[in-house]
Design a protein that fits this description.
By secondary structure, the chain is an alpha/beta fold. It has 2 domains: 3-261, Aldolase class I (TIM Barrel), CATH 3.20.20; 267-351, Ribonuclease E, catalytic domain (Hypothetical Protein Ychn, Chain: A, 3-Layer(aba) Sandwich). The chain is built from 13 helices and 13 strands. The chain has helices at residues 24-28, 37-48, 73-88, 106-114, 129-134, 141-153, 171-183, 201-208, 216-232, 246-249, 263-282, 299-303, 308-317; strands at 3-9, 58-64, 94-99, 117-125, 157-162, 188-191, 196-197, 237-240, 254-256, 291-294, 323-326, 334-339, 342-347. Strands 1-2-3-4-5-6-8 form a 7-stranded parallel β-sheet, with helices on one face. Strand 2 (58-64), helix 3 and strand 3 (94-99) form a beta-alpha-beta unit. Helix 2 (37-48) runs parallel beside helix 3 and helix 7 (171-183) runs parallel beside helix 9 (216-232). The radius of gyration is 22 Å and the shape is globular.
């Protein structure tokens, strides 16, 4: 389902714990007074004026940044009432909230459903209790399992967010989290590699030398494996890497970590590079000017940023030239190689 999202940020509101990685005001790029009924209504009206006219597109008001269901009940009700008024007027279709696993139970979900909340996103971060404890999350993996079961029983759309590279994490534990998330069958996932943000406890650990974040290459490698597993399970990945904001891009906000404005493209390009390698190495009569075919929407993924994939393939296999043909007939996540009159294909699922 294609959604037109109207974001409402409630940074830190409702959060009972200060996670060591979190500075939501800097991450979300918001400052000043907290959201009110009036500011919510002004934001929604502003976004509605910019909504594209696209058939089948649903409009959703989304509360991001804090733990919505951990807020005072009167505050929740006030914000939900304002959002719900747009649903009653036929201008908005549903509401989305982000929250913590330990702030979900059957009564809370029933309350949310009464206001047409259709999507709940949970900040899972990890399914390893030791990692959760070191990050001061204040909940366990069992809390996540309980919350997911409650949301699924109520037939609400479920999104799960994970954060690879937290203190105590390893590649093996990160993939354990990915596999556990897949078992919970969410409707979509988000992957946020851990960054060291200014004015967080994690910054203090980093400056003391007690925490070392993943390098960009390490984050690309582990997120590539995560993407392949989620894609193989037919679970959409709606975001990989933090959403760039003016605050995040301001010098000194991100202290360390695998930061890149086009992080997802780097990960997807790494997948296509691996597929191209497999095709070339299986080819018995490789043309020095091979032609690859790719879905038009993934053309840039195959080429890589600044055509880096093309350059690396040419150097690695001593190729004179590489032709890339965007073809609608190639399904997303697949790649074809034409050498002479012979065509071979590979699907990203074959990389697992």
């Amino acid at each position: 389902m294609c959604h037109f999202i109207i974001p409402i940020f409630v940074p830190h509101m409702g959060c009972p714990h200060r996670c060591i990685f979190c500075n939501q005001r800097r991450i979300a790029g918001v400052s000043g007074s907290l959201v009110t009924q009036d500011s919510l209504e002004d934001t929604v009206k502003l976004y509605l004026r910019t909504k594209p006219k696209k058939e089948g597109m649903k409009t959703q008001i989304a509360f991001y940044g804090g733990s919505f269901t951990g807020m005072d009940l009167n505050v929740q009700e006030s914000l939900l009432c304002s959002a719900y008024s747009f649903i009653k007027d036929g201008k908005v279709d549903s509401i989305r909230v982000s929250t913590r696993p330990d702030c979900i139970d059957p009564d809370i979900v029933s309350f949310l459903k009464a206001y047409k909340v259709g999507t709940i996103e949970l900040g899972v971060q990890s399914m390893v209790d030791r990692v959760l404890m070191q990050s001061n999350r204040g909940h366990t993996s069992y809390d996540t399992l309980k919350a997911v079961k409650t949301i699924s029983r109520n037939e609400l759309e479920l999104g799960l967010q994970i954060m690879p590279g937290l203190p105590g994490d390893t590649p093996e534990l990160i993939l354990h989290t990915v596999d556990r998330v897949i078992e919970m069958k969410p409707d979509f996932v988000r992957i946020y590699p851990t960054m060291v943000i200014k004015d967080t406890p994690l910054e203090e650990l980093y400056l003391k030398g007690s925490f070392e974040p993943m390098t960009l290459d390490e984050a690309i490698d582990i997120c590539k494996e995560a993407l392949l597993r989620f894609k193989n399970a037919d679970i959409p990945i709606v975001r990989v890497g933090l959403q760039p904001t003016p605050e995040l891009e301001r010098e000194g906000t991100i202290i360390a970590g695998p930061s890149h404005p086009s992080f997802r493209q780097l990960v997807e390009s790494a997948i296509f590079f691996e597929m191209a390698k497999r095709l070339i190495e299986k080819c018995t009569t490789l043309d020095k000017k091979p032609t690859f075919s790719v879905n038009p929407k993934e053309y840039s993924y195959f080429c890589g940023q600044k055509n880096k994939n093309i350059a690396k393939l040419k150097e690695r296999y001593k190729l004179k030239e590489i032709n890339v043909m965007p073809e609608m007939g190639v399904k997303k996540g697949a790649l074809g190689l034409l050498t002479g009159t012979s065509m071979s294909c590979i699907d990203s699922k074959e990389l697992l």
